[in-house]
Design a protein that fits this description.
CATH class of the largest domain: Alpha Beta
Strand order of the largest sheet: 2-8-7-6-5
Radius of gyration: 21 Å
Number of strands: 16
Strand content: 5-15%
Helix content: 40-55%
Structural class: alpha/beta
Number of domains: 2
Distance between the termini: 46 Å
CATH superfamily of the largest domain: Type I PLP-dependent aspartate aminotransferase-like (Major domain)
Number of helices: 16
CATH architecture of the largest domain: 3-Layer(aba) Sandwich
């Protein structure tokens, strides 16, 4: 077994609140873990976004950041890195991925337009809705088989995409692909599927955009799982992925391992000019996009660090350590594990809690109650919505996501997470569901208040 390809230079102390304190904290937070102050968290697996540990090279880059308002040196450092990895003609820095989404969608969506994707994540979906569009998920059938060991369960159903475009192409401004598929259990997408979805989009004259948040992890999965890529570097694989695309949105808080940042990239000059106008209104001048020069510099360095194969091997091995430990303890996890998180199938874990009472959220609350572990529900709180008949439509998967920050925790921390699940399983019949008492809309999971149904 190989150790992590880094050593620790700075540490941050953490402490475990008492059981009595945790109960009080949950009540004050209205049973929403987003409302819990970070000093009351022992192990924070809420998200892998912006929570990674930056390297000595990135911290050194921060000191070199150029804070000029227009055309700072750090912008050109990032521009060079984006061109070398992604290959698009134009790019615009943004303060994070959701800003890139809003700039793009506000530039291309008209009311009633439909954006197909393998699976939209929460802010992507919400930005489409906010701009008058309709998000459409077209996952492959394997995506709803959480325990079947298949290599690329994040794929898009390309037959469904072709059929949909043949019937609705006039309503579609672009086709998207999310890599890896966060809403579907962090599962990767194959190069074959990316290439096929791109061709179908282009057959109907539609731009093909990639939600590239975890492109480096997806590239590594292609390297180790897809025939013909074993001898290619993750950089070569990434370049091939984006060669099939017309643009991408990117949250650098994931695979560029920075605390803030993102960008929007594309090949179409007219779209770029339109997006530039929107960006100036929403984010700032086009060479800083809502970021300090030091953030641009750290992002330029992190883009290459995120592609380092020794790092990727270690990161994905750590995710697998947590997933295997849970599965060996008979905790139902999505298998095989993805790169950034382990997903517990909460509907199977709590079969007595109906989806309308949010079993994924219930497990997240119990993890905090048991060991001050913060996680995130990816289920009916996040994605349930009323159908045309007025009835509530629940997602097929009811998940609790354990997102692992990059270069932050050791396997000892993850062993605590495994033990907490085991202890919850021993008393799971006594765990209740929850009701939303305040909050609505596609992003209600961020600020909703809950009440336990005891």
């Amino acid at each position: 077994m190989l150790a992590e390809p880094y050593k620790m230079k700075v540490v941050e102390p953490i402490a475990l609140p008492s059981s009595k304190q945790r109960e009080s904290i949950l009540k004050r937070a209205h049973y929403n873990l987003f409302n819990v102050a970070s000093q009351h968290i022992y192990i924070d697996l809420l998200t892998d976004s912006g929570t990674g540990a930056m390297s000595q090279s990135q911290w050194a880059g921060i000191m070199l950041g150029d804070e000029a308002y227009a055309s700072c040196r750090s912008y050109f450092s990032l521009k060079k890195a984006v061109a070398e990895i992604f290959g698009f003609r134009f790019f615009l820095p943004t303060h994070q991925g959701r800003a890139a989404e809003n700039v793009l969608f506000s530039s291309v969506i008209k009311p009633g337009m439909i954006v197909p994707n393998n699976m939209h994540f929460d802010t992507t979906r919400a930005n489409i809705i906010a701009n008058g569009g309709i998000p459409l998920n077209l996952p492959c059938k394997e995506a709803s088989m959480p325990f079947k060991d298949l290599p690329f369960k994040g794929n898009m159903d390309t037959k469904a995409l072709r059929k949909f475009l043949s019937e609705n192409h006039a309503k579609v401004p672009l086709v998207m692909m999310t890599i890896t598929n966060n809403s579907g259990g962090g599962q990767p997408v194959s190069m074959k599927n990316i290439k096929k979805a791109s061709k179908i989009a282009h057959d109907f004259g539609k731009p093909f955009f990639i939600d590239a948040c975890r492109y480096a992890e997806n590239s590594y999965f292609i390297k180790v799982r897809e025939r013909g890529y074993k001898r290619k570097s993750t950089l070569e694989i990434a370049r091939e992925i984006f060669s099939y695309a017309d643009g991408c949105t990117f949250s650098a808080k994931k695979d560029a391992i920075v605390n803030i940042g993102g960008f929007l990239a594309m090949n179409d000059r007219k779209l770029f000019e339109k997006c530039t106008e929107r960006l100036i209104l929403m984010e700032g001048f086009p060479t800083y996009g809502g970021l300090a020069g030091r953030d641009l510099e750290a992002m330029a360095i992190g883009l290459f660090e995120g592609l380092d194969e020794a790092y990727l091997e270690s990161r994905i091995a750590q995710t697998r350590f947590l997933a295997k430990g849970l599965r060996d303890a008979d905790i139902p996890v999505v298998w095989p594990p993805g790169g950034h998180a382990v997903y517990v199938e909460a509907k199977r874990f709590f079969p007595h809690i109906p989806q309308a009472e949010f079993p994924g959220h219930a497990l997240a609350i119990e993890l905090y109650r048991e060991a001050a572990i913060r996680s995130c529900e990816i289920g009916s709180v996040m994605f349930a919505e009323k159908g045309p008949d007025g009835k509530m439509k629940h997602p097929k998967l009811e998940l609790t996501r354990l997102a692992i920050p990059r270069r932050v925790y050791t396997n000892s921390h993850l062993s605590v997470v495994i033990d907490a699940h085991i202890k919850i399983a021993e008393r799971k019949e006594n765990v209740c569901g929850y009701k939303i008492v305040r909050g609505s809309g596609p992003l209600k999971h961020f600020n909703a208040w809950f009440r336990p149904l005891k």
